Amino acid sequence: MKRALLFALALAACKEEVAQNTDPLPLAPETLGYFCQMNLMEHEGPKGQVHLDGLPGAPLFFSQVTDLVTYLRLPEQSNTVLAIYVSDMGADGATWAQPGAANWTDAKTATYVVGADVTGGMGAPELAPFADPAKAEAFAAVHGGSVMGLEAIPDSALAPLTPNVAEGDDDYARRLKSLSGTEG
Fold first, then answer.
1. Alpha helices in the chain (DSSP H)
2. Which of 10, 19, 95, 147 is most deeply packed, by most CB within 10 A?
3. Using CA atoms, how far apart are residues 172 and 184, in angstroms rounded to an integer?
4. In this structure, what are the phi and psi dihedrals at residue 155, rounded to the nearest 5 degrees?
């Protein structure tokens, strides 16, 4: 009995760690955005997914690439990131309205157009990722913006939009006054 137990322990000690599969998963009708919990296939623009250590086959999906980059930069984000993918907007058949369900590219090697005249799935300015830098340059020539890598994207490109109260968002202005205690 002791011998069998020692043999079992020796086998367990020799067990090789199996690497977690981090291949990108295609979008499906039930795929929800991590922040918004909305169906991703119902929104325009490129998407993203992050594979975290300990969550095999369950990446976090993002309705906008800006959301993905924001998540990666959050100080609270302490999980080990194993892989990051973004929609390749230069892939065959990819359009802003239908960016594709399975045309993923590695976010770390993608080229991004920042500051273009495009909005993402949540209606905010969006980053446009491309696997091919030449296609990013061509996109920027038409839509404006600067071409850069993931690490060069400035935090200011990730900032949420704030309503312009001067243009008549009366409800927003009323709620701000209410919160500040200046409304009677």
1. 2-14, 65-73, 133-143, 170-180
2. 147
3. 16
4. -60, -30
**How far is the C-alpha of 51 from the C-alpha of 120, rounded, in Å?**
22
Q: How far is CA 88 from CA 38, 76, 92, 105, 109, in A?
A: 21, 28, 9, 6, 11
Sheet holding 146-148, edge to edge: 128-130, 111-114, 146-148
Work out the end-to-end distance of the chain between its first and last CA atoms, rounded to an integer number of angstroms.
82
pTM strictly above 0.90: no
Distances (CA, A) of 29 to 39, 42, 58: 7, 9, 15
Instruction: Please tell me whether residue 102 adopts helix, strand or coil conformation.
Output: coil
pLDDT in tens, 53-73: 999 999 999 999 999 999 999
